[in-house]
């Protein structure tokens, strides 16, 4: 067993822009999904099999809060939640359909 092996490097925009700062990451390895939450309540879902040079398969935005900072995310095969601050909020989606269920 070789343990962890570096496979891909992912980029999510200009790192000097605060809106591109990645605050949270989660992976659903059994369905090959990478999820990131950036400042401003933007969350993106990527197909790991396609690699880092492809567009996200889903982009969700919780609202118009450019200063929102995600503190944690939780994702399963159907639902996604992000909790954060500035302002304090929790957003829940059916991420496959892109439907926000609550905020």
Automatic annotation (TrEMBL):
This is Uncharacterized protein. It comes from Rhizopus microsporus var. microsporus. InterPro entries: WD40_repeat_dom_sf. The lineage of its organism: Eukaryota, Fungi, Fungi incertae sedis, Mucoromycota, Mucoromycotina. SUPFAM superfamilies: WD40 repeat-like. It comes from the Eukaryota.
